[in-house]
Amino acid sequence: MTILVTGARGNIGGRLLTLLAEGGHRVRGSARNTSALRLPEGAEPAELDVTDPRGAEQALRGVETMFLYPTRGETGAFLRIAAEARVRHVVLLSSPAAYEAGEYDRPIGLVHRAVERALEESGLRHTVLYPSWLATNARRDWAGEIRATGRVGIAHPDAQVNPVHIDDVAEVAARLLTEEAHRGRRQVLTGPRSMRLREVVAALGETVGAPVEVEELTVEQALGRRDPRMPEPVLRTLLEVTASAVGVPAPVTNTVERITGHPAREFAEWASANRADFR
Ligand SMILES: NC(=O)c1ccc[n+]([C@@H]2O[C@H](COP(=O)([O-])OP(=O)(O)OC[C@H]3O[C@@H](n4cnc5c(N)ncnc54)[C@H](OP(=O)(O)O)[C@@H]3O)[C@@H](O)[C@H]2O)c1
Questions:
Q1: How many structural domains compose the chain?
Q2: Residues 125 and 146 in one domain
Q3: 143 and 228, same structural domain?
Q4: NAD(P)-binding domain: which residues (predicted)?
Q5: Beta bridge mates, 45
Q6: In this structure, which residue's CA is closest to atom 33 in ligand 1?
Q7: Which partner for 189 in 94, 95, 131, 201 could form a disulfide, CB atoms 3.0-4.6 Å apart?
């Protein structure tokens, strides 16, 4: 039987596919456009947009379990086909934005809640993952500026987050896709500690081998520097959430250790493995 990993080009999906292939599992990795898809040895490609059921039957043939990315748009038709194809378990990557005050009724929360609802309505058995602040946010939000200037502008740098290593998220997903234990629950995944954003930057500086200066931005400055790929309402929500996390320790859970058997990885470990992106 095959495990389908949707979003095989994604940070978490790609890592998950590699872990499963290394573990000797039969895996299929999908992307909306497979031309740029690089798969580990033995993995099969599939072209699939989960909001367009046309590629679904082929992508789901012989699939026993599936990793699902939360995507904008209607996923109900695809999930109904998955139920008809007798997929036995789905692991959904969701976000605490689906339930946190100040987020659940805003754009990011609504996207995640819509996919969760579609999954519930499909009748498919599933487990939902809620990772905290992904360590890869540091690359997405700061790497370009740090490489160019050695500094980084951040609004509310004393806000606290709990960076979770994507290898831990992928490892938890791999366990849930291949073993019965821990399935069927909502799993809140965090790293081992709450850190202020300026501490996360300091950890990056140590890894890069040169301190990275934090420039504290006002909200208006942060909005003025918005990456055009980030819609303004989404950035506004993120800035509000960040403001509310100043002086508030981000929760720590034992989910990673409980499911994988090892403690959650430190942010510094992710930074060290990805230091080239910040130089
Ligand atoms: N940032 C955070 O702190 C945080 C916290 C909690 C949860 N999350 C969740 O984690 C996600 C980021 O994870 P990541 O870094 O691994 O993602 P990523 O690298 O941005 O990859 C996203 C994947 O989603 C796939 N995808 C998007 N739309 C699709 C569609 N319609 N049909 C099929 N596949 C589709 C993409 O596939 P293609 O190759 O087809 O483009 C891509 O592989 C966020 O979007 C959020 O939902 C984030």
A1: 2
A2: no
A3: yes
A4: 7-179
A5: 29
A6: 49
A7: 131
In the chain, % of residues over pLDDT 70: 100
* 174 located within any domain: no
Question: Which residue(s) pair with 31 in the sheet?
Answer: 47
Q: What CATH number should be reported for the domain holding residue 240? A: 3.90.25.10
Question: Residue 76 sits in which domain range?
Answer: 2-131
| Residue 156 shares a structural domain with residue 98 | no
Residues 73 and 152 in one domain: no
> Ligand 1 center to residue 209 CA distance, Å?
31
- Distance (angstroms) between ligand 1 centre and the Cα of 31 equals 11
pLDDT per position as a tens digit, 127-139: 999 999 999 999 9
Asked if 110 and 20 sit in the same domain, the reply is: yes
Q: Locate the ligand 1 atom nearest the alpha carbon of residue 134 and give its number.
A: 3
Considering the domain boundaries, does residue 259 fall inside one?
A: no
pLDDT tens for residues 19-69? Answer: 999 999 999 999 999 998 999 999 999 999 999 999 999 999 999 999 999
For residue 69, the CA-to-ligand 1 centroid distance in Å is 6
Output the pLDDT for position 254.
98
Distance 210 CA to ligand 1 centre (A): 31
Using CA atoms, how far apart are residues 129 and 115, in angstroms rounded to an integer?
A: 12
In one-letter notation, the amino acid at residue 104 is: Y
| Closest ligand 1 atom number to CA of residue 97 | 6
Pick from 26-30, 166-170, 215-219, 227-231: least confident: 227-231
Q: Which atom of ligand 1 is nearest to the CA of 32?
A: 40
Q: 112 and 32 in one domain?
A: yes
Residue ranges lining ligand 1, Cβ < 6 Å:
6-7, 9-13, 31-32, 48-51, 69-71, 93, 95, 131, 133-134, 136-137
